Amino acid sequence: MLRKQGIVHDIVKIAETIYGNISDKVVSFLDEKRMRSFFSVCLCIFLLFGRVAHAVDQQKMRSTELKNGMKVYVIQNNSLPIVMHMLIYKVGGVDDPPGLSGIAHYFEHMMFSGTKKFPKFSDVIDGLGGDLNAETSSSYTAYHELVHKKHLPLMMEMEADRMQSLRLVDKYLERERNVVREERKMRVESTKQALLAEEVFNVFYRNGYGRPVIGWDHEISNYNKEAANAFYRKYYNPNNAILLVVGDVDFGEVVRLANQHYGKIKNRHERVEKKFAANIEPPHRSEIIVKMSHHTISDPEVMMLYKAPSVSTESDNKVMLAAHIAVDIVAGDAFGVLYNELVKNRSLATSVFGEYSELVGSDGVVSVELLPKLGVSPEDINREAKEVIADLMERGVTEELVNSAKYRSMAHFTYGLDGVVSMARFYADTLAAGQSR
């Protein structure tokens, strides 16, 4: 079955993954014209919200760039005398070299091995009554500290120090390799949702986004001091970093401190060349069927994947905002059409969950997960779900459905910016994807 070309914002692919004793995955295609109409309706009604969101962004954020290429963003929030200091490195799972899947995540662990000046990084933050954490995604790695605003200079000093002088000691390298392996067992191999996502995305994406961020178990063993040091020197430089400061701060003072602590750091490379970074997906021209089972899975689960617009394939943000509305209408938890039909009316499923990921360096993806009721086969829930979606495309989307989804999205957006922590996390995703406007 051939895929039609030329409409990047059409959802053209459903991947349904079935767990349990039957356990298979089916890829099918939706009608392009109907999906185009669906997105068009959402887009027209969603234009106003796009302008509002843009205005909010512009009002709250100020930015500059240091001479060494490090970008600095500041969002002032005077509700409490606290500050979130976040350092974002533009390197993630997609940049893992062949044979070293997960090394970006592994190096996140290594960043806490200390320096000569600050041998116990975490203990310093704990002693201040602060909170710290880190995370690695496919596209970036972020380190953040939440402290009283008077400690902001120290946070910059500490992060600048470990950007230059991290200790890569053998005992820490071995210890964290074992920690990562145990983390994989706990978070992936013991969780059916994680197993499902890993298997599906490995087939759906034919580039770096198909690899698990935590890495394949057999490749975790390949990590060594030489590989870790090469990764550190290549990616942990000012010109590959973004500083985000959110809280009770003054923009001018943040810039002064950033120049003092980060501005003097020299780049080891003039420009990071991401040899292994993912690009846009090649066309998916064939129907794919994958069969999978796992001894820890007793209840079946269905996942649908749709190829969708992303910041890398679509320059108009309003199209992606419209896609968010479309996903909410189809699979918005207890409010979506699939939930209403399959859970409430037909009593075939216990839950429906939908998600849209557009902040990626490849094609975006819409995922929809269905949990069928006991006695309902994955094939049945698959067939019924496709009927519901086809019927929605045939009848068209009502203004009532779009308005309802629009206001839920606006509420979610507003709540997501409530507080310095949630605000920093929201902007970290957008800034790492190059969406500073």
- Please report the total strand number as a whole number: 12
Portion in strands:
15-25%
The H-and-E topology, N to C, reads as EEHEEEHHEEHHHHHEHEEHHEEHHH
- Count of the separate structural domains: 2
Shape: globular
The CATH superfamily of the largest domain turns out to be Metalloenzyme, LuxS/M16 peptidase-like
Q: Quickly give the CATH architecture of the largest domain.
A: 2-Layer Sandwich
CATH fold field value of the largest domain: Cytochrome Bc1 Complex, Chain A, domain 1
Describe the fold and architecture.
This protein has 437 residues and is an alpha+beta fold. The chain has 2 domains: 176 residues, Metalloenzyme, LuxS/M16 peptidase-like (Cytochrome Bc1 Complex, Chain A, domain 1), CATH 3.30.830.10; 217 residues, 2-Layer Sandwich (Cytochrome Bc1 Complex, Chain A, domain 1). 43% of the residues lie in helices and 18% in strands. It has 14 helices and 12 strands. The strands form 3 sheets. Strands 3-4-8-5-7-6 form a 6-stranded mixed beta sheet, with helices on both faces. Strands 1-2-9 form a 3-stranded antiparallel beta sheet, covered by helices on one side. It has a 3-stranded antiparallel beta sheet with strand order 10-12-11, with helices on both faces. A hairpin with a 6-residue loop joins strand 11 and strand 12. It is globular, with a radius of gyration of 23 Å. The N terminus is likely disordered.
